[in-house]
Design brief:
The complex is a heterodimer. Chain A is an all-alpha fold. The N and C termini of chain A lie far apart (48 Å). Chain B is built from four helices and four strands. In chain B, helix 2 packs across helix 3. Classes of the chains: A mainly alpha, B mainly alpha.
């Protein structure tokens, strides 16, 4: 049943994903995220209207598939021209999917069971149950205000299975993770269209598998940290790194098509509806994407406003409905003032940070410097500056959330910093991989590179 | 001009070589590290999951919408029990101590935990 449900989960999104990205590995990676975003917004509507989740998801998916099927033929024809079909993309997806073997172990740790799948149980029981539970002090340990993507996906899977199935939920979250990582890998590989297949496969999967290396078993234990980070990473690649489709005189690579924006915005919505940190990061990425694209395409302002509304809909709605915020005032020890918490937070961020991040950060700095010197004419693609802005913005927001939270600081940091830092690590890996991909371009102007950055 | 071009070429080759090696290392690490982490913990994780799944089945057999769940703080699986009973039972805050219905205690069923139902 688990395999059938996972197959149905991916297949439901394949047609609209193919309409955006063309048939192939990219659509396969995009489909889970697309269904996830549809499920998340269906969950929001179900909670708002106090109704069941599945009818809304069914209607939304039917509409997406109908529109996707109508557009598919024309879009597929346009995207098929000049696209390299040597199987490298399938190799990349296979490499990124390898961590799925971890699913042989039924691992669901605290966050997975007590936040995401507990909320999934609420949604499975219906929007009215969710509203009541989110206001119930008995559930205050469960971060009732956290965004609904993973919970909605789990609830949909359980609706299909007919019962609460934790193993199915674990597998669905892992598929979401691999899908988002796959989008990062394929996007990076697309930056090096003229490199040998092995190099494209290596630079593509290197960043994605590097994120798996840094996050360990989080790819398969039901946690949301890698899910939102990878989705945000995919959005960064599509919206900030790959060339703008309509940039005048910009480089021509295979990804240069308007559908790239749709893929990026979808990944952005997935990140925003997965975790609070993803919501903040998505708004930063959206702001940077708007500043990059609005001059070449006036429609970007409208698209950005609509996406921003979609991003902030959940945090506004759930608080307006009276959901209880997570606080443990009785257990607070140590400094309570914001100034008193500042130092310990920074020290904990530094000391808990995985040594690989320090290495990665140092290398990323060196790589960025080398790229700025050696690849001056391609800076418009690498967009190092924008990735560093996103990373810095996220880390500042993270530190601020620790400093202002009404929790026992030491306990809070001990139990979360190793996970919340994953996103920053992943973004830096994307930066490194993007520069390495660009370094493989032939040193001629025939590649279409421009002397001026396209952003 | 020529030296500048040479300098840029050196930077580009350095970037290409070190970056490719780094990504290759990271890719290999990504394939190996999670498996290594899991090795040795897998049996513990499986045992824990089996116990919790067994408890969950037991809870489902015993609760319905008329039940209320109260969890004593000293119970090892207290919070888990709240999760397991959701959404079948009505979960009420700790203050409602008069509505104790389910309690998990160390003992017999489910490899170390037992579900006892006391409907009021």
């Amino acid at each position: 049943m688990t395999v059938v449900a996972i197959g149905a989960f991916v297949l439901c999104g394949m047609v609209p994903a193919a309409a955006l990205a063309g048939w192939g590995p990219r659509a396969l990676c995009l489909a889970p995220l697309l269904v996830g975003v549809v499920a998340a917004f269906s969950g929001e509507v179900a909670i708002l209207t106090e109704t069941a989740l599945w009818p809304w998801a069914l209607v939304a998916l039917a509409a997406a598939n109908t529109i996707g099927a109508r557009r598919l033929r024309a879009v597929a024809g346009a995207q098929g021209r000049g696209r390299r079909r040597d199987g490298t993309e399938w190799v990349i997806v296979a490499a990124v999917a390898t961590p799925l073997v971890l699913l042989v172990v039924p691992e669901l740790s605290w966050d997975a069971r007590s936040i995401w799948l507990l909320h999934g149980r609420w949604l499975w029981a219906g929007g009215a149950f969710f509203r009541e539970a989110a206001r119930n002090p008995a559930f205050v340990f469960s971060h009732s205000t956290y965004p609904p993507l993973i919970s909605s996906v789990a609830a949909l899977g359980w609706t299909l299975a007919g019962h609460v199935d934790l193993r199915l939920a674990q597998a669905l979250v892992a598929v979401l993770n691999v899908g988002a990582l796959g989008l990062i890998a394929l996007g990076i590989a697309e930056l090096a269209p003229r490199s040998p297949a092995w190099r494209r496969a290596l630079v593509g999967s290197g960043a994605a598998l590097g994120a798996v290396a840094l996050s360990g078993r989080m790819v398969s234990n039901g946690y949301a940290d890698l899910t939102w980070a990878a989705a945000a990473g995919a959005a960064i690649v599509s919206l900030l790194v790959l060339p703008a489709p309509r940039a005048p005189g910009g480089p021509r690579v295979e990804a240069a098509r308007p559908a790239l924006w749709a893929v990026g915005l979808l990944a952005l919505l997935a990140a925003a509806t997965t975790k609070d940190e993803g919501t903040v990061t998505a708004l930063i990425v959206l702001g940077l994407a708007w500043s990059r694209h609005w001059r070449t395409d006036r429609g970007w302002t409208v698209v950005s406003v609509a996406t921003a509304l979609g991003i902030i809909a959940w945090p506004v709605m759930i608080r307006a409905l009276g959901a209880l915020e997570w606080t443990y005032p009785a257990t607070i020890t140590g400094p309570r003032s914001i100034t008193g918490r500042f130092g310990p937070t920074l020290r904990a961020l530094a000391s808990t940070t995985h040594w690989l991040l320090l290495v990665t950060g140092g290398i990323a700095l060196c790589i960025a410097a080398l790229g700025a010197i050696g690849l001056r004419e391609r800076r418009g693609l690498g967009s190092t500056l924008q990735i560093w802005i996103v990373t810095s913005g996220y880390l500042c927001a993270l530190a601020l959330s620790y400093i202002t939270a009404k929790t026992d600081l030491a306990w809070h940091l001990d139990n979360s910093v190793d996970r919340t830092i994953i996103a920053a690590e992943l973004f830096l890996l994307v930066d490194i991989a993007a520069w390495v991909a660009l370094a493989g371009w032939p040193e001629t102007r025939s590649a279409g590179a421009t002397d001026r950055p396209t952003r | 001009m020529a030296s500048s071009r040479r300098f840029r070429a050196i930077a580009r080759v350095t970037l290409l070589v070190t970056g490719t090696l780094l990504l290759a290392g990271l890719a290999a690490l990504g394939l190996v590290r999670p498996l290594r982490q899991l090795h040795g913990q897998a049996s513990t994780i499986r045992a824990d999951y089996t116990r919790l799944a067994c408890l969950e089945r037991a809870v489902h057999r015993r609760v319905d919408r008329h039940d209320r769940v109260y969890v004593t703080p000293d119970v090892q699986y207290g919070q888990r029990l709240v999760e397991m009973a959701t959404p079948w039972a009505r979960v009420v805050p700790d203050q409602a101590r008069s509505t104790v219905v389910l309690r998990v205690a160390a003992g017999d069923e489910c490899a170390g935990a037992r579900v006892v139902s006391t409907r009021r």
